[in-house]
Amino acid sequence: MHEFLQLLIVGISQGCIYGLMALGFVMIYKATEMVNFAQGDMMMLGSFVAWTLIMDLGMPFWLGVPATLIIMALFGALVDILIVRRVIGQPQFAVVILTLGLGIVFRAAAGMIWGQVPLTIDSPISGFSSFYGIVIGNERLAIIVVTALLIVILWAYFRYSKWGIAMKAASQNQLAAYYSGIPVRVIISAVWAVAAAISALAGILLAPITLIEPMNGLLGIKAFAAAVIGGFGSMPGAILGGLIVGIIEPFAAAYVPGVKGSMVYIVMLIVLALRPQGLFAQIHRKKL
Amino acid sequence: MRILFKTNYKQDLNLAKHGGHRFWYGLLVLILFATPLMLDGYYIGEATRVLIYAMAGLGLMVLTGFTGQASLGHAAFLAIGAYTNAWFLAQGFSSLVALPMAALLSMIGGLLVAIPATRMSGIYLAIATLAFAIIVEDFAGHLTGITGGNRGMMVDVPMLFGYKIWQSWELYLFVLSILVVATLLVLNILRSPLGRAMIAVRDSEISSKALGVNPMKIKVFAFTVSAAITGLAGAFLAHYMLYLTPQIFGILLSIQLLLMIVLGGLGTVHGVFFWSCIDRRTGNWHINFKRCPAIFDWRFTRNRTIHFWSHTN
After folding, report:
1. Quick one: three-class SS letters along chain B?
2. Residue A259's domain spans which residues?
3. Which residue does chain B place closest to A263, by CA atoms?
4. Which of A224-233, B265-274, B289-298, B303-312 has the lowest mean pLDDT?
5. Is residue B142 situated within a structural domain?
6. Are the beta carbons of A101 and B258 separated by less than 8 Å?
7. How many domains does chain A have?
8. Whole-prediction pTM value?
Protein backbone atom coordinates (compact mmCIF):
# COMPACT_ATOMS: atom_id res chain seq x y z
CA MET A 1 0.00 0.00 0.00
CA HIS A 2 2.82 2.31 0.93
CA GLU A 3 4.68 1.51 -2.27
CA PHE A 4 1.46 1.98 -4.19
CA LEU A 5 1.00 5.52 -2.87
CA GLN A 6 4.63 6.34 -3.47
CA LEU A 7 4.38 5.28 -7.11
CA LEU A 8 1.07 7.07 -7.44
CA ILE A 9 2.44 10.41 -6.33
CA VAL A 10 5.49 10.18 -8.59
CA GLY A 11 3.14 9.25 -11.43
CA ILE A 12 0.85 12.18 -10.72
CA SER A 13 3.70 14.68 -10.75
CA GLN A 14 5.06 13.27 -14.01
CA GLY A 15 1.52 13.13 -15.36
CA CYS A 16 1.07 16.82 -14.65
CA ILE A 17 3.94 17.59 -17.05
CA TYR A 18 2.38 15.43 -19.76
CA GLY A 19 -0.99 16.97 -19.01
CA LEU A 20 0.36 20.49 -19.43
CA MET A 21 1.91 19.62 -22.76
CA ALA A 22 -1.21 17.80 -23.88
CA LEU A 23 -3.15 20.91 -22.93
CA GLY A 24 -1.07 22.84 -25.45
CA PHE A 25 -1.84 20.27 -28.15
CA VAL A 26 -5.54 20.34 -27.40
CA MET A 27 -5.79 24.14 -27.29
CA ILE A 28 -4.19 24.47 -30.70
CA TYR A 29 -6.22 21.58 -32.05
CA LYS A 30 -9.48 23.06 -30.84
CA ALA A 31 -8.71 26.49 -32.21
CA THR A 32 -7.34 25.53 -35.61
CA GLU A 33 -7.93 21.78 -36.13
CA MET A 34 -4.17 21.45 -36.47
CA VAL A 35 -2.07 18.96 -34.61
CA ASN A 36 1.16 20.55 -33.50
CA PHE A 37 3.83 17.86 -33.49
CA ALA A 38 6.37 20.50 -32.41
CA GLN A 39 4.77 21.01 -28.99
CA GLY A 40 7.41 18.94 -27.20
CA ASP A 41 10.15 20.90 -28.90
CA MET A 42 8.56 24.15 -27.76
CA MET A 43 8.77 22.79 -24.22
CA MET A 44 12.44 22.03 -24.82
CA LEU A 45 13.07 25.54 -26.18
CA GLY A 46 11.28 26.99 -23.16
CA SER A 47 13.60 25.24 -20.75
CA PHE A 48 16.64 26.39 -22.75
CA VAL A 49 15.43 29.99 -22.74
CA ALA A 50 14.93 29.74 -18.97
CA TRP A 51 18.46 28.38 -18.64
CA THR A 52 19.87 31.30 -20.65
CA LEU A 53 18.01 33.90 -18.60
CA ILE A 54 18.64 32.39 -15.20
CA MET A 55 22.00 30.65 -15.43
CA ASP A 56 23.69 32.54 -18.23
CA LEU A 57 22.44 36.10 -17.76
CA GLY A 58 22.09 35.70 -14.00
CA MET A 59 18.47 36.76 -13.64
CA PRO A 60 16.81 35.87 -10.35
CA PHE A 61 14.76 32.69 -10.66
CA TRP A 62 11.43 34.32 -9.94
CA LEU A 63 12.06 36.98 -12.56
CA GLY A 64 13.48 34.55 -15.09
CA VAL A 65 10.42 32.33 -15.11
CA PRO A 66 7.85 34.97 -16.13
CA ALA A 67 10.35 36.42 -18.60
CA THR A 68 10.71 32.97 -20.18
CA LEU A 69 6.96 32.59 -20.38
CA ILE A 70 6.62 35.95 -22.13
CA ILE A 71 9.44 35.20 -24.57
CA MET A 72 8.00 31.82 -25.40
CA ALA A 73 4.49 33.24 -25.78
CA LEU A 74 5.86 35.73 -28.31
CA PHE A 75 7.72 32.92 -29.99
CA GLY A 76 4.56 30.84 -30.22
CA ALA A 77 2.64 33.74 -31.73
CA LEU A 78 5.46 34.34 -34.22
CA VAL A 79 5.47 30.68 -35.27
CA ASP A 80 1.78 31.02 -35.99
CA ILE A 81 2.02 34.35 -37.80
CA LEU A 82 5.08 33.56 -39.89
CA ILE A 83 4.67 29.89 -40.67
CA VAL A 84 1.70 27.90 -39.52
CA ARG A 85 -0.99 30.39 -40.49
CA ARG A 86 -0.14 29.83 -44.13
CA VAL A 87 -1.36 26.25 -44.11
CA ILE A 88 -4.75 26.86 -42.55
CA GLY A 89 -7.31 25.19 -44.76
CA GLN A 90 -4.73 22.87 -46.32
CA PRO A 91 -5.10 19.13 -45.85
CA GLN A 92 -4.22 17.86 -42.42
CA PHE A 93 -1.29 15.91 -43.72
CA ALA A 94 0.49 19.08 -44.85
CA VAL A 95 0.18 20.40 -41.30
CA VAL A 96 1.57 17.18 -39.85
CA ILE A 97 4.61 17.37 -42.11
CA LEU A 98 5.04 21.07 -41.42
CA THR A 99 4.98 20.73 -37.64
CA LEU A 100 7.17 17.62 -37.73
CA GLY A 101 9.66 19.64 -39.76
CA LEU A 102 9.38 22.59 -37.38
CA GLY A 103 10.14 20.27 -34.47
CA ILE A 104 13.25 19.02 -36.27
CA VAL A 105 14.38 22.59 -36.96
CA PHE A 106 13.82 23.59 -33.32
CA ARG A 107 15.81 20.58 -32.14
CA ALA A 108 18.63 21.29 -34.57
CA ALA A 109 18.64 25.00 -33.68
CA ALA A 110 18.75 24.21 -29.96
CA GLY A 111 21.64 21.86 -30.61
CA MET A 112 23.50 24.58 -32.49
CA ILE A 113 22.82 27.34 -29.95
CA TRP A 114 23.08 25.50 -26.65
CA GLY A 115 25.01 22.39 -27.66
CA GLN A 116 24.29 18.74 -26.99
CA VAL A 117 25.71 18.75 -23.45
CA PRO A 118 22.87 18.51 -20.91
CA LEU A 119 22.37 21.63 -18.79
CA THR A 120 20.80 22.18 -15.38
CA ILE A 121 18.95 25.06 -13.76
CA ASP A 122 19.53 25.73 -10.05
CA SER A 123 16.06 25.65 -8.67
CA PRO A 124 15.24 27.49 -5.44
CA ILE A 125 13.03 24.56 -4.54
CA SER A 126 14.87 21.54 -3.29
CA GLY A 127 14.81 18.92 -0.57
CA PHE A 128 12.13 16.41 0.31
CA SER A 129 8.80 16.41 2.04
CA SER A 130 7.18 13.44 3.67
CA PHE A 131 3.57 12.79 4.50
CA TYR A 132 2.65 9.70 6.47
CA GLY A 133 5.85 8.04 5.37
CA ILE A 134 5.51 8.88 1.67
CA VAL A 135 8.58 10.76 0.55
CA ILE A 136 8.42 13.14 -2.39
CA GLY A 137 10.92 15.60 -3.81
CA ASN A 138 9.87 19.22 -3.41
CA GLU A 139 10.43 19.82 -7.12
CA ARG A 140 7.84 17.14 -7.86
CA LEU A 141 5.49 18.65 -5.33
CA ALA A 142 5.95 22.03 -7.00
CA ILE A 143 4.91 20.51 -10.33
CA ILE A 144 1.63 19.29 -8.84
CA VAL A 145 0.92 22.59 -7.08
CA VAL A 146 1.74 24.74 -10.11
CA THR A 147 -0.31 22.55 -12.41
CA ALA A 148 -3.30 22.70 -10.07
CA LEU A 149 -2.97 26.47 -9.88
CA LEU A 150 -2.67 26.75 -13.64
CA ILE A 151 -5.78 24.66 -14.16
CA VAL A 152 -7.74 26.98 -11.89
CA ILE A 153 -6.36 30.04 -13.69
CA LEU A 154 -7.13 28.59 -17.11
CA TRP A 155 -10.61 27.58 -16.02
CA ALA A 156 -11.29 31.10 -14.78
CA TYR A 157 -9.73 32.53 -17.93
CA PHE A 158 -11.98 30.54 -20.22
CA ARG A 159 -14.99 31.12 -18.00
CA TYR A 160 -14.80 34.81 -17.20
CA SER A 161 -12.32 36.71 -19.34
CA LYS A 162 -13.35 38.26 -22.62
CA TRP A 163 -10.36 36.80 -24.45
CA GLY A 164 -10.94 33.33 -23.05
CA ILE A 165 -14.57 33.33 -24.16
CA ALA A 166 -13.52 34.67 -27.57
CA MET A 167 -11.06 31.77 -27.85
CA LYS A 168 -13.79 29.29 -27.02
CA ALA A 169 -16.06 30.90 -29.57
CA ALA A 170 -13.39 30.85 -32.25
CA SER A 171 -12.70 27.19 -31.63
CA GLN A 172 -16.38 26.26 -31.81
CA ASN A 173 -17.21 28.06 -35.00
CA GLN A 174 -14.67 30.32 -36.64
CA LEU A 175 -17.06 31.88 -39.10
CA ALA A 176 -19.74 32.66 -36.54
CA ALA A 177 -17.08 34.07 -34.23
CA TYR A 178 -15.79 36.25 -37.02
CA TYR A 179 -19.27 37.58 -37.74
CA SER A 180 -19.71 38.43 -34.07
CA GLY A 181 -16.72 40.73 -34.33
CA ILE A 182 -14.09 38.48 -32.81
CA PRO A 183 -10.70 39.00 -34.50
CA VAL A 184 -10.19 35.30 -35.24
CA ARG A 185 -6.67 35.66 -36.63
CA VAL A 186 -5.42 37.47 -33.55
CA ILE A 187 -7.22 34.97 -31.34
CA ILE A 188 -5.52 32.04 -33.04
CA SER A 189 -2.12 33.65 -32.61
CA ALA A 190 -3.02 34.21 -28.98
CA VAL A 191 -3.90 30.53 -28.62
CA TRP A 192 -0.50 29.63 -30.00
CA ALA A 193 1.09 32.06 -27.56
CA VAL A 194 -0.76 30.56 -24.59
CA ALA A 195 0.01 27.01 -25.72
CA ALA A 196 3.70 27.84 -26.12
CA ALA A 197 3.80 29.51 -22.70
CA ILE A 198 2.12 26.51 -21.06
CA SER A 199 4.60 24.11 -22.59
CA ALA A 200 7.48 26.41 -21.60
CA LEU A 201 6.16 26.26 -18.05
CA ALA A 202 6.14 22.47 -18.30
CA GLY A 203 9.75 22.67 -19.48
CA ILE A 204 10.78 24.83 -16.54
CA LEU A 205 9.01 22.55 -14.07
CA LEU A 206 10.67 19.51 -15.59
CA ALA A 207 14.15 21.08 -15.70
CA PRO A 208 15.17 20.33 -12.08
CA ILE A 209 14.16 16.66 -12.45
CA THR A 210 15.65 15.80 -15.82
CA LEU A 211 18.51 17.57 -17.53
CA ILE A 212 17.85 20.06 -20.30
CA GLU A 213 18.90 18.75 -23.70
CA PRO A 214 17.59 19.05 -27.27
CA MET A 215 16.22 15.51 -27.28
CA ASN A 216 13.77 16.41 -24.48
CA GLY A 217 11.43 17.48 -27.23
CA LEU A 218 10.64 13.83 -27.86
CA LEU A 219 8.70 13.79 -24.60
CA GLY A 220 6.06 15.48 -26.69
CA ILE A 221 5.16 12.06 -28.10
CA LYS A 222 4.05 10.91 -24.67
CA ALA A 223 2.05 14.08 -24.25
CA PHE A 224 0.56 13.26 -27.60
CA ALA A 225 -0.48 9.85 -26.31
CA ALA A 226 -1.98 11.63 -23.32
CA ALA A 227 -4.04 13.88 -25.57
CA VAL A 228 -5.28 10.86 -27.54
CA ILE A 229 -6.21 8.92 -24.41
CA GLY A 230 -8.01 11.90 -22.96
CA GLY A 231 -9.78 12.83 -26.17
CA PHE A 232 -8.33 15.32 -28.59
CA GLY A 233 -11.02 17.90 -28.29
CA SER A 234 -11.23 18.14 -24.53
CA MET A 235 -9.07 20.26 -22.21
CA PRO A 236 -9.99 18.45 -18.96
CA GLY A 237 -9.43 15.27 -20.98
CA ALA A 238 -5.89 16.40 -21.78
CA ILE A 239 -5.01 16.82 -18.11
CA LEU A 240 -6.68 13.53 -17.15
CA GLY A 241 -5.01 11.77 -20.07
CA GLY A 242 -1.68 13.20 -18.94
CA LEU A 243 -2.27 11.92 -15.42
CA ILE A 244 -3.19 8.47 -16.76
CA VAL A 245 -0.01 8.34 -18.85
CA GLY A 246 2.07 9.60 -15.94
CA ILE A 247 0.60 7.05 -13.54
CA ILE A 248 0.91 4.14 -15.99
CA GLU A 249 4.65 4.68 -16.34
CA PRO A 250 5.95 4.09 -12.80
CA PHE A 251 3.46 1.27 -12.21
CA ALA A 252 4.48 -0.47 -15.42
CA ALA A 253 8.13 -0.02 -14.46
CA ALA A 254 7.49 -1.50 -11.00
CA TYR A 255 5.17 -4.40 -11.80
CA VAL A 256 5.69 -5.31 -15.49
CA PRO A 257 9.21 -4.08 -16.31
CA GLY A 258 9.18 -5.89 -19.66
CA VAL A 259 6.78 -3.38 -21.19
CA LYS A 260 7.63 -0.26 -19.23
CA GLY A 261 8.52 1.75 -22.31
CA SER A 262 5.59 0.68 -24.43
CA MET A 263 2.78 0.29 -21.88
CA VAL A 264 1.59 3.86 -22.50
CA TYR A 265 1.34 3.25 -26.22
CA ILE A 266 -0.36 -0.11 -25.75
CA VAL A 267 -2.98 1.63 -23.62
CA MET A 268 -3.25 4.32 -26.26
CA LEU A 269 -3.80 1.77 -29.02
CA ILE A 270 -6.48 0.06 -26.93
CA VAL A 271 -8.20 3.40 -26.40
CA LEU A 272 -7.92 4.18 -30.11
CA ALA A 273 -9.42 0.82 -31.02
CA LEU A 274 -12.27 0.86 -28.52
CA ARG A 275 -13.08 4.52 -28.08
CA PRO A 276 -11.43 6.55 -30.83
CA GLN A 277 -12.87 9.81 -29.61
CA GLY A 278 -10.94 9.48 -26.34
CA LEU A 279 -12.01 8.66 -22.83
CA PHE A 280 -13.28 12.08 -21.88
CA ALA A 281 -14.48 13.37 -25.20
CA GLN A 282 -16.95 16.16 -25.18
CA ILE A 283 -20.27 15.77 -26.89
CA HIS A 284 -19.27 18.14 -29.65
CA ARG A 285 -16.87 16.08 -31.74
CA LYS A 286 -14.73 17.54 -34.48
CA LYS A 287 -14.74 15.60 -37.69
CA LEU A 288 -11.51 13.90 -38.58
CA MET B 1 7.50 17.84 -77.02
CA ARG B 2 7.22 14.36 -78.32
CA ILE B 3 3.90 13.36 -79.80
CA LEU B 4 2.93 9.81 -78.96
CA PHE B 5 0.93 8.15 -81.67
CA LYS B 6 -0.93 5.32 -80.06
CA THR B 7 -2.37 2.60 -82.22
CA ASN B 8 -3.19 0.11 -79.54
CA TYR B 9 -4.73 0.28 -76.04
CA LYS B 10 -1.91 -1.86 -74.75
CA GLN B 11 0.46 1.02 -75.35
CA ASP B 12 -1.12 2.76 -72.38
CA LEU B 13 0.05 -0.08 -70.18
CA ASN B 14 3.66 -0.06 -71.32
CA LEU B 15 6.14 0.81 -68.61
CA ALA B 16 8.31 2.68 -71.08
CA LYS B 17 6.12 5.07 -73.01
CA HIS B 18 8.48 5.48 -75.93
CA GLY B 19 11.92 4.59 -77.19
CA GLY B 20 13.52 7.47 -75.32
CA HIS B 21 12.34 6.09 -72.01
CA ARG B 22 13.72 2.71 -72.87
CA PHE B 23 17.06 4.19 -73.84
CA TRP B 24 17.56 6.56 -70.90
CA TYR B 25 16.33 4.22 -68.17
CA GLY B 26 18.37 1.42 -69.69
CA LEU B 27 21.41 3.69 -69.64
CA LEU B 28 20.70 4.68 -66.03
CA VAL B 29 20.53 1.06 -64.92
CA LEU B 30 23.72 0.28 -66.86
CA ILE B 31 25.56 3.19 -65.25
CA LEU B 32 24.31 2.20 -61.81
CA PHE B 33 25.55 -1.34 -62.30
CA ALA B 34 28.88 -0.04 -63.63
CA THR B 35 29.35 2.40 -60.73
CA PRO B 36 31.67 0.10 -58.74
CA LEU B 37 34.16 0.36 -61.60
CA MET B 38 34.25 4.14 -61.27
CA LEU B 39 33.97 4.91 -57.55
CA ASP B 40 36.06 3.81 -54.59
CA GLY B 41 34.94 2.14 -51.37
CA TYR B 42 33.65 5.15 -49.41
CA TYR B 43 31.42 6.41 -52.18
CA ILE B 44 30.18 2.92 -52.89
CA GLY B 45 29.17 2.68 -49.23
CA GLU B 46 27.33 5.99 -49.50
CA ALA B 47 25.64 4.88 -52.69
CA THR B 48 24.56 1.66 -50.99
CA ARG B 49 22.98 3.67 -48.24
CA VAL B 50 21.13 5.82 -50.75
CA LEU B 51 19.80 2.67 -52.41
CA ILE B 52 18.70 1.20 -49.09
CA TYR B 53 16.86 4.38 -48.13
CA ALA B 54 15.32 4.49 -51.58
CA MET B 55 14.04 0.96 -51.06
CA ALA B 56 12.55 1.88 -47.68
CA GLY B 57 11.06 5.00 -49.23
CA LEU B 58 9.63 2.93 -52.05
CA GLY B 59 7.86 0.77 -49.49
CA LEU B 60 6.45 3.80 -47.71
CA MET B 61 5.47 5.38 -51.02
CA VAL B 62 3.24 2.40 -51.85
CA LEU B 63 1.32 3.02 -48.65
CA THR B 64 1.44 6.79 -48.23
CA GLY B 65 1.96 8.07 -51.73
CA PHE B 66 -0.30 5.72 -53.64
CA THR B 67 -2.88 4.55 -51.12
CA GLY B 68 -3.04 7.72 -49.04
CA GLN B 69 -2.39 6.11 -45.66
CA ALA B 70 0.09 8.20 -43.68
CA SER B 71 2.46 6.09 -41.65
CA LEU B 72 4.72 7.50 -38.97
CA GLY B 73 5.95 4.06 -38.04
CA HIS B 74 7.85 2.61 -40.92
CA ALA B 75 11.03 2.32 -38.88
CA ALA B 76 9.24 -0.59 -37.20
CA PHE B 77 9.22 -2.58 -40.43
CA LEU B 78 12.86 -1.70 -41.03
CA ALA B 79 13.58 -3.03 -37.55
CA ILE B 80 11.64 -6.26 -38.08
CA GLY B 81 13.40 -6.84 -41.40
CA ALA B 82 16.83 -6.03 -40.03
CA TYR B 83 16.55 -8.24 -36.94
CA THR B 84 14.95 -11.14 -38.79
CA ASN B 85 17.68 -11.08 -41.41
CA ALA B 86 20.44 -10.84 -38.82
CA TRP B 87 18.96 -13.63 -36.71
CA PHE B 88 18.56 -16.07 -39.59
CA LEU B 89 22.11 -15.34 -40.79
CA ALA B 90 23.38 -15.88 -37.26
CA GLN B 91 21.70 -19.30 -37.25
CA GLY B 92 23.75 -20.20 -40.30
CA PHE B 93 21.06 -19.84 -42.95
CA SER B 94 21.98 -18.24 -46.25
CA SER B 95 20.60 -14.94 -47.48
CA LEU B 96 18.29 -16.93 -49.74
CA VAL B 97 16.38 -17.88 -46.60
CA ALA B 98 17.08 -14.81 -44.47
CA LEU B 99 15.92 -12.17 -46.94
CA PRO B 100 12.54 -13.76 -47.77
CA MET B 101 12.00 -14.38 -44.07
CA ALA B 102 12.73 -10.71 -43.36
CA ALA B 103 10.18 -9.68 -45.96
CA LEU B 104 7.67 -12.26 -44.75
CA LEU B 105 7.89 -11.39 -41.07
CA SER B 106 7.60 -7.69 -41.70
CA MET B 107 4.69 -8.47 -44.01
CA ILE B 108 3.01 -10.22 -41.08
CA GLY B 109 3.81 -7.16 -38.98
CA GLY B 110 2.19 -5.02 -41.66
CA LEU B 111 -0.88 -7.23 -41.63
CA LEU B 112 -1.14 -6.91 -37.85
CA VAL B 113 -1.04 -3.13 -38.10
CA ALA B 114 -3.30 -3.01 -41.11
CA ILE B 115 -6.27 -4.72 -39.54
CA PRO B 116 -6.93 -2.04 -36.90
CA ALA B 117 -5.38 0.73 -39.01
CA THR B 118 -7.79 0.40 -41.90
CA ARG B 119 -10.53 1.67 -39.61
CA MET B 120 -8.64 4.87 -38.87
CA SER B 121 -7.73 7.75 -41.08
CA GLY B 122 -5.64 10.87 -41.15
CA ILE B 123 -4.10 11.92 -37.91
CA TYR B 124 -5.26 8.92 -35.88
CA LEU B 125 -3.64 6.55 -38.33
CA ALA B 126 -0.37 8.48 -38.02
CA ILE B 127 -0.58 8.24 -34.23
CA ALA B 128 -1.40 4.53 -34.24
CA THR B 129 1.51 3.69 -36.54
CA LEU B 130 3.76 5.88 -34.43
CA ALA B 131 2.74 3.92 -31.35
CA PHE B 132 3.40 0.65 -33.18
CA ALA B 133 6.92 1.80 -34.05
CA ILE B 134 7.68 2.77 -30.46
CA ILE B 135 6.36 -0.57 -29.21
CA VAL B 136 8.50 -2.48 -31.72
CA GLU B 137 11.58 -0.46 -30.75
CA ASP B 138 10.90 -1.16 -27.09
CA PHE B 139 10.40 -4.88 -27.66
CA ALA B 140 13.63 -5.04 -29.67
CA GLY B 141 15.33 -3.75 -26.55
CA HIS B 142 13.76 -6.42 -24.36
CA LEU B 143 13.97 -9.55 -26.52
CA THR B 144 17.58 -10.05 -25.50
CA GLY B 145 17.68 -13.63 -26.77
CA ILE B 146 17.03 -12.64 -30.37
CA THR B 147 18.13 -9.04 -30.73
CA GLY B 148 20.87 -8.77 -28.14
CA GLY B 149 18.75 -6.16 -26.38
CA ASN B 150 20.05 -2.65 -25.95
CA ARG B 151 23.62 -3.92 -26.12
CA GLY B 152 23.03 -4.68 -29.78
CA MET B 153 24.05 -7.50 -32.07
CA MET B 154 26.60 -8.05 -34.82
CA VAL B 155 25.29 -8.74 -38.30
CA ASP B 156 26.92 -11.44 -40.42
CA VAL B 157 27.73 -10.61 -44.01
CA PRO B 158 25.21 -11.79 -46.61
CA MET B 159 25.77 -15.27 -47.95
CA LEU B 160 24.63 -16.53 -51.35
CA PHE B 161 25.18 -20.15 -52.41
CA GLY B 162 27.94 -20.55 -49.84
CA TYR B 163 29.70 -17.39 -51.05
CA LYS B 164 30.11 -14.64 -48.47
CA ILE B 165 29.65 -11.08 -49.68
CA TRP B 166 32.48 -9.18 -48.02
CA GLN B 167 33.28 -6.38 -50.44
CA SER B 168 31.31 -3.16 -50.35
CA TRP B 169 30.84 -3.18 -54.11
CA GLU B 170 29.40 -6.68 -53.96
CA LEU B 171 26.86 -5.52 -51.39
CA TYR B 172 26.10 -2.52 -53.59
CA LEU B 173 25.35 -4.73 -56.58
CA PHE B 174 23.26 -7.06 -54.43
CA VAL B 175 21.16 -4.17 -53.09
CA LEU B 176 20.89 -2.62 -56.52
CA SER B 177 19.59 -5.80 -58.15
CA ILE B 178 16.97 -6.30 -55.45
CA LEU B 179 16.00 -2.61 -55.68
CA VAL B 180 15.54 -2.84 -59.45
CA VAL B 181 13.30 -5.87 -58.95
CA ALA B 182 11.34 -4.10 -56.19
CA THR B 183 10.89 -0.98 -58.32
CA LEU B 184 9.66 -3.04 -61.26
CA LEU B 185 7.31 -4.85 -58.91
CA VAL B 186 5.87 -1.56 -57.64
CA LEU B 187 5.55 -0.14 -61.16
CA ASN B 188 3.81 -3.30 -62.26
CA ILE B 189 1.42 -3.20 -59.34
CA LEU B 190 0.66 0.42 -60.20
CA ARG B 191 -0.39 -0.36 -63.75
CA SER B 192 -2.50 -3.34 -62.72
CA PRO B 193 -6.14 -3.03 -61.60
CA LEU B 194 -4.89 -3.36 -58.02
CA GLY B 195 -2.69 -0.29 -58.36
CA ARG B 196 -5.46 1.71 -59.98
CA ALA B 197 -7.69 0.72 -57.08
CA MET B 198 -5.05 1.93 -54.61
CA ILE B 199 -4.94 5.32 -56.27
CA ALA B 200 -8.73 5.43 -56.35
CA VAL B 201 -8.83 4.77 -52.60
CA ARG B 202 -6.33 7.56 -52.04
CA ASP B 203 -8.22 10.06 -54.14
CA SER B 204 -11.64 9.32 -52.79
CA GLU B 205 -12.64 6.42 -50.64
CA ILE B 206 -16.33 6.94 -51.28
CA SER B 207 -15.97 7.10 -55.06
CA SER B 208 -13.79 4.00 -55.05
CA LYS B 209 -16.50 2.17 -53.12
CA ALA B 210 -19.02 3.26 -55.70
CA LEU B 211 -16.80 1.78 -58.39
CA GLY B 212 -16.84 -1.56 -56.66
CA VAL B 213 -13.48 -1.37 -54.93
CA ASN B 214 -13.27 -2.62 -51.37
CA PRO B 215 -11.08 0.03 -49.67
CA MET B 216 -10.50 -2.21 -46.65
CA LYS B 217 -8.92 -4.95 -48.79
CA ILE B 218 -6.89 -2.47 -50.81
CA LYS B 219 -5.52 -0.82 -47.69
CA VAL B 220 -4.58 -4.17 -46.14
CA PHE B 221 -2.86 -5.12 -49.40
CA ALA B 222 -0.98 -1.81 -49.51
CA PHE B 223 0.12 -2.26 -45.90
CA THR B 224 1.48 -5.75 -46.51
CA VAL B 225 3.31 -4.89 -49.75
CA SER B 226 4.69 -1.74 -48.18
CA ALA B 227 5.84 -3.61 -45.08
CA ALA B 228 7.47 -6.34 -47.16
CA ILE B 229 9.51 -3.90 -49.25
CA THR B 230 10.47 -1.86 -46.22
CA GLY B 231 11.39 -5.07 -44.40
CA LEU B 232 13.74 -6.00 -47.25
CA ALA B 233 15.29 -2.53 -47.00
CA GLY B 234 15.70 -3.18 -43.27
CA ALA B 235 17.51 -6.43 -44.00
CA PHE B 236 20.01 -4.55 -46.16
CA LEU B 237 20.23 -1.74 -43.65
CA ALA B 238 21.43 -4.38 -41.19
CA HIS B 239 24.25 -5.29 -43.58
CA TYR B 240 25.09 -1.65 -44.09
CA MET B 241 25.14 -0.88 -40.35
CA LEU B 242 26.98 -4.11 -39.42
CA TYR B 243 25.81 -3.62 -35.84
CA LEU B 244 22.18 -3.30 -34.78
CA THR B 245 20.80 -1.53 -31.73
CA PRO B 246 17.12 -0.71 -31.17
CA GLN B 247 17.96 3.01 -31.02
CA ILE B 248 18.67 3.02 -34.77
CA PHE B 249 15.00 2.37 -35.40
CA GLY B 250 13.68 5.27 -33.36
CA ILE B 251 10.93 7.66 -34.20
CA LEU B 252 13.35 9.99 -35.97
CA LEU B 253 14.02 7.39 -38.66
CA SER B 254 10.29 7.08 -39.34
CA ILE B 255 9.99 10.84 -39.61
CA GLN B 256 13.00 11.02 -41.90
CA LEU B 257 11.47 8.42 -44.21
CA LEU B 258 8.16 10.25 -44.32
CA LEU B 259 9.83 13.59 -44.98
CA MET B 260 11.90 11.96 -47.68
CA ILE B 261 8.93 10.79 -49.70
CA VAL B 262 6.87 13.92 -49.07
CA LEU B 263 9.67 16.20 -50.19
CA GLY B 264 10.44 14.00 -53.17
CA GLY B 265 6.81 14.28 -54.15
CA LEU B 266 4.04 12.02 -52.90
CA GLY B 267 2.70 9.69 -55.51
CA THR B 268 5.80 9.55 -57.67
CA VAL B 269 8.36 6.77 -57.83
CA HIS B 270 10.89 9.27 -59.12
CA GLY B 271 10.49 11.31 -55.97
CA VAL B 272 11.67 8.47 -53.77
CA PHE B 273 14.96 8.17 -55.63
CA PHE B 274 15.35 11.89 -56.03
CA TRP B 275 15.08 12.70 -52.37
CA SER B 276 16.95 9.68 -51.08
CA CYS B 277 19.98 11.03 -52.98
CA ILE B 278 19.58 14.56 -51.62
CA ASP B 279 18.84 13.34 -48.11
CA ARG B 280 22.19 11.62 -47.91
CA ARG B 281 24.20 14.44 -49.47
CA THR B 282 22.89 17.12 -47.15
CA GLY B 283 23.62 14.90 -44.19
CA ASN B 284 27.33 15.35 -44.65
CA TRP B 285 27.41 19.12 -44.26
CA HIS B 286 27.03 19.27 -40.58
CA ILE B 287 25.40 16.94 -38.17
CA ASN B 288 23.09 19.66 -36.90
CA PHE B 289 21.99 20.62 -40.34
CA LYS B 290 21.15 17.04 -41.03
CA ARG B 291 17.41 17.41 -41.24
CA CYS B 292 17.10 21.17 -41.51
CA PRO B 293 16.62 21.36 -45.28
CA ALA B 294 13.30 19.65 -44.77
CA ILE B 295 11.46 22.70 -43.62
CA PHE B 296 13.01 25.11 -46.08
CA ASP B 297 12.35 22.93 -49.04
CA TRP B 298 8.90 22.14 -47.87
CA ARG B 299 7.45 25.15 -49.63
CA PHE B 300 9.20 24.10 -52.78
CA THR B 301 7.31 20.85 -53.05
CA ARG B 302 4.22 22.03 -51.29
CA ASN B 303 2.06 22.32 -54.34
CA ARG B 304 2.74 18.77 -55.30
CA THR B 305 2.04 17.56 -51.77
CA ILE B 306 -1.16 19.50 -51.60
CA HIS B 307 -2.14 18.33 -55.02
CA PHE B 308 -1.95 14.72 -54.04
CA TRP B 309 -3.55 15.18 -50.70
CA SER B 310 -6.26 17.62 -51.56
CA HIS B 311 -8.33 14.75 -52.87
CA THR B 312 -8.12 12.73 -49.71
CA ASN B 313 -9.96 15.05 -47.37
Report:
1. CCCCCCCCHHHHHCCCCCHHHHHHHHHHHHHHHHHHHHCCHHHHHHHHHHHHHHHHHHHHHHHHHCCCCCCCCHHHHHHHHHHHHHHHHHCCCCHHHHHHHHHHHHHHHHHHHHHHHCCCCHHHHHHHHHHHHHHHHHHHHHCHHHHCHHHCEECCCCEECCEECCCHHHHHHHHHHHHHHHHHHHHHHHHCHHHHHHHHHHHCHHHHHHCCCCHHHHHHHHHHHHHHHHHHHHHHHHHHHCEECHHHHCHHHHHHHHHHHHHHHCCCHHHHHHHHHHHHHHHCCCHHHCCCHHHHHHCCCHHHHHHHHCCCC
2. 2-274
3. B135
4. B303-312
5. yes
6. no
7. 1
8. 0.82
